[in-house]
Specification:
Blueprint: E1 2-5, E2 12-16, H1 21-24, E3 31-33, E4 38-41, H2 56-65, E5 73-75, E6 92-97, E7 101-103, E8 109-112, E9 119-122, E10 133-136, E11 153-154, E12 157-160, E13 166-168, H3 171-176, E14 188-193, E15 200-205, E16 211-213, H4 222-225, E17 232-233, E18 238-239, E19 247-250, E20 258-265, H5 272-282, H6 284-287, H7 293-302, H8 314-333, H9 342-351, E21 363-367, E22 377-396, E23 421-436, H10 438-448, H11 452-467, H12 478-496, E24 506-513, E25 518-528, H13 544-559, H14 566-569
Parallel strand pairs: 1-6, 5-23
Antiparallel strand pairs: 1-2, 3-4, 4-6, 7-8, 7-11, 8-14, 9-10, 12-13, 12-19, 14-15, 15-16, 17-18, 20-22, 21-22, 22-23, 23-25, 24-25
Helix pairs in contact: 5-8, 12-13
């Protein structure tokens, strides 16, 4: 997929990323580091619509989360095969250079792109987007032609607020604050040097001699130094009303952008009526074009993906197509989005698996629980085939979305206007589902409910919500969540060592349930955008002989950590809002693409005796 720079005169190809990265790491509003520059991905108003992805359950959930956005479709990354004969230019995502302050690597001068005559965008190699660059044309320390000049690099610092806004660092105001005399014309230079005593990044104005260390804008000192947020969304080219305090951010920081997503797993139909409805839904772009019966039959016989429709009569096909058309038209007329329980339907399927209920995108097989864990593990399901669809509904900055209890209220928008769709990606792969013994889990949860560790974490949760203006006093099933989530992370780390997939490509899906209908289980899965899915390395570890050994190792991993005793003794102390106990990067934390909860609600003490008496007997 190609990233295009939004040059006012002519769009320019300046980089490439995978379509799946638009959902995970480089979506709308994300700052993307490219070989020659740094850009921000523009809003959906600037995108060309792509191919529609059919997943009715996920679409209903997106409509429920974004009730005022008028969402009617899930669309993949734009694809236009007729745009060019060159396959590398068939897809284009618009971007804008950000930050707009650049630094010349030779003379160290800071230059703004807007209004600066000394900067020039050079890109004369259409098939080499990595060679696009900004150059300093008047640099006194560089000689030679434009193509030989070293590219200017993005300035290292930006500012952001918790409402999702991001802006340029105010270099000019920062340097000249409290200056005795006005500056005749700012000429800024950025100098940095390594030091064990702290950052030595200095911004100097060579025109008036004023100079300040960037450390004066960081941490608590930044509250007095930096202005209030002016509500800038550079990906939408708009400003909003906002008076939140700004925070100094380093370009490339992991908390500069968090995508807020929803994911649904494809579930097979339970009857012939559901089966034909599902097939029509997933192939609507072909079947909904209004073709005649003879043409429709020829298309079905010529496309392997539609061969299953050959078993249905012409009347059944016509009826199913008409029902699907009415269902799609009704989305625009609905005032209240329909409620849907994504996890509940998946739990029902996984907790009662059968190989009789499957299709091309789903096949699950129940297998025996490992020896020695039959009282703790109620069931193991090897998911040989699965299809997951993930849709982006917004993004956050500074704090990751808090999805387990309620969706983050400070989600930034993907578009200025009602575009009627959100970007999505579908992947196919495999997984292992593990169901825990509900009686054992429920008994332990009742015992742990009033434990000191649980009280500490509940207090930290109230503080976390209070710090972000959210209502306190909510009732998360903390013991159950800690147990399922901690076991999921420990097993994920062990599985990654043996299955052939990296830990960042394995994802968890937690099934904690509700107070009225508690559940206890999790799915570890990996998937790829390729239509053939993955190779089976993960699902093979669900066999009894392998899984028992892995759980033995998980039990041992829960007891020790290379950061002990500090890790084992950690619990949040008021007024801390850290939502984890004995957990750290050395033992439990996983990548952002793997964890559903942002590495919150983890505690080794629920699986191993760390001296508090909280651990479950498993």
């Amino acid at each position: 997929m190609t990233l295009m720079s939004r040059n006012p005169l002519e769009p320019t190809r300046i980089g490439e990323i995978r379509p799946s990265q638009l959902i995970t790491t480089s979506g709308v509003g994300a700052v993307v580091d490219l070989p020659g520059m740094s850009v921000i991905v523009r809003g959906l108003d600037e995108w060309k619509p792509g191919i529609e992805i059919d997943e009715a359950r996920l679409l209903a959930q997106v409509r429920q989360v974004l009730p005022d956005a008028g969402i009617t479709k899930l669309l993949a990354a734009p694809y236009d095969p007729s745009a060019s004969k060159d396959p590398t230019t068939r897809i284009g995502i618009p971007t804008t250079t950000f930050p707009r302050w650049l630094r010349c690597p030779a003379c160290r001068q800071l230059l703004p792109i807007d209004g600066a005559e000394q900067l020039k965008l050079i890109h004369r190699w259409g098939r080499r987007p990595d060679m696009a660059k900004w150059i300093h044309t008047n640099c006194p320390k560089q000689n030679g032609g434009e193509t030989k000049r070293r590219p200017c690099i993005p300035a290292r610092f930006v500012v952001a607020c918790s409402h999702g806004h991001i802006d340029e660092f105010p270099y000019i105001d920062f340097v000249h604050k409290n200056a005795a005399t006005p500056c005749p014309g700012p000429q800024l230079r950025l100098n940095d040097a390594g030091s064990v005593l702290g950052p030595r990044v200095t911004i100097t104005c060579t025109a008036c001699g004023n100079s300040r260390n960037i450390a004066e804008a960081s941490g608590t000192r930044g509250a007095d130094t930096l202005p209030y947020c002016r509500g800038r969304h550079p990906h939408l080219q708009i400003f909003e009303d906002c008076q939140e305090p700004l925070k100094l951010m380093v370009l490339g920081a992991s908390n500069l952008w968090f995508n807020d997503t929803l994911t649904a797993l494809h579930l097979p139909s339970e009857s012939r009526e559901h089966a034909i409805a599902t097939l029509v839904e997933h192939n609507w772009q072909i079947l909904g074009s209004g073709m005649e019966t003879k043409v429709l039959r020829a298309v079905i016989s010529g496309m392997p993906a539609l061969h299953a429709l050959s078993d249905f009569t012409d009347e059944q096909l016509a009826q199913a197509i008409e029902i699907e058309r009415e269902r799609r038209q009704s989305h625009d007329r609905q005032s209240q989005p329909e409620a849907v329980d994504l996890l509940g339907a998946e739990w029902k399927m996984f907790s009662h698996p059968t190989t009789q209920l499957h299709d091309d995108d789903f096949l699950a097989e129940e297998t025996a629980a490992p020896e020695g864990f039959s009282t703790f593990v109620a069931g193991v399901v090897k998911v040989h085939r699965l299809r997951e669809v993930t849709a982006s509904v917004g993004f956050t900055r500074i704090d990751a979305p808090y999805n387990l209890e309620q969706r983050h209220v400070e989600r930034a928008p993907l578009a200025r206007n009602r575009v009627g769709w959100v970007p999505a990606v579908e992947r196919r792969g495999e997984g292992i589902f593990i169901q825990l013994n509900e009686d054992l889990v429920a008994k332990w949860c009742n015992r742990a409910e009033n434990h000191e560790d649980i009280k500490r974490l509940r207090a930290a949760n109230d503080q976390w919500r209070l710090n972000r203006g959210l209502p306190t006093g909510t009732h998360l099933p903390v013991p159950r969540l800690l147990l399922i989530h901690t076991l999921s992370h420990l097993l994920l780390r062990r599985v990654a060592l043996e299955c052939g997939y990296s830990a960042t490509s394995i994802r968890e899906r937690l099934y904690v349930g509700t107070t009225e209908q508690p559940t206890a289980g999790f799915l570890l899965s990996t998937a790829a955008s390729d239509s053939e899915g993955t190779l089976g390395g993960l699902v093979a570890l669900g066999d009894q002989r392998f899984l028992g050994r892995l759980l033995d190792q998980v039990r041992e991993d829960a007891r020790t950590c290379s950061s002990d005793p500090h890790c084992a003794e950690y619990l949040p102390e008021p007024p801390s809002d850290q939502l984890h106990g004995a957990a750290c990067h050395a033992c439990l934390f996983a990548s952002e693409t793997s964890c559903e909860a942002g590495n919150r609600w983890l505690h080794r003490g629920v699986l191993a005796d760390l001296g508090s008496g909280l651990a479950i007997d498993w």
